[in-house]
Sequence to fold (269 residues):
Amino acid sequence: MKRSSLSFNGKVAIVTGSSMGIGKAVSIELCRCGASVVINGRNAEKLNATKNELESMGFDLIACPADVTNYNECEMLVQAAIAKYKKLDILVTCAGVAGRASFETLSPYHFKTIVDSNIYGTVFPARAALPFLKESKGSLVFISSLAGMMGIPYYTAYCSGKMSLTALYQCLRGELKNTGIHTGIVYVGFTKNEEGKQFISADGNLVPVPPRNERLQQPRGKVARSIVNLIKRRKSKMILSPIGKINALLIRYFPILVRTIIERASVKS
Ligand SMILES: NC(=O)c1ccc[n+]([C@@H]2O[C@H](COP(=O)([O-])OP(=O)(O)OC[C@H]3O[C@@H](n4cnc5c(N)ncnc54)[C@H](OP(=O)(O)O)[C@@H]3O)[C@@H](O)[C@H]2O)c1
Fold:
């Protein structure tokens, strides 16, 4: 496997939610740049299959099954990195589930599941990793979404979770500024989903994500390269995809227009 530039040679990264999708693509990109990576997900079988696939590409990694909404499991995840590699330089918090349903039909329990996976699924690994990132003056990067920039009808829980990441990132950026830790947040746009991606429906069942307009989706590899570039350059904020960039500009200067467009385009669930 061809390595891109080995700018992360000797670095150790944890990528949460990396048995598939964007997290897996980020792990591959970090490995290509020379990092040793700890991949993560809840389903050990799926995670192990990804580990085997990446090992067959010649990469150095370990897999640690853990639910990032459980703080003890996040400590285990960080300890797995320390036990194997003795340090931690990068944490990318990619794990997070989405759901589409009206606020009225989504049960409070499933609302909480979606919010927890996006908020505590970021807070807990970040808190567990903090002492080690301080030691390495490493990078702490949160994966948000365009849904974290403006509320979208029928995505109440997901938008609430992703918007909270902005608050978390802004607070931590100030709080950690004298520690040498780089903090970053990436607002990811529509990305080509991996086959088998599911999200939570109104009744709480996991259902396949409906097909989306191909032209509006970015390839996962491209998204991963952008995320890794943010880490390389220690940049603080990145908005991905042409739609995302236009959206950010319109939200700043014409927020009412954006709200009207989003509300008209939203189809009742
Ligand atoms: N796809 C998009 O278009 C898009 C757009 C904007 C933002 N994003 C964000 O990008 C991130 C990745 O999205 P994706 O589409 O690549 O997701 P995905 O394909 O559904 O993969 C999600 C990954 O996270 C793991 N995961 C989920 N909950 C977890 C938990 N509680 N603890 C540990 N691992 C967990 C899953 O494995 P297990 O199920 O085995 O745990 C899987 O490896 C998410 O934060 C998402 O909100 C995605």
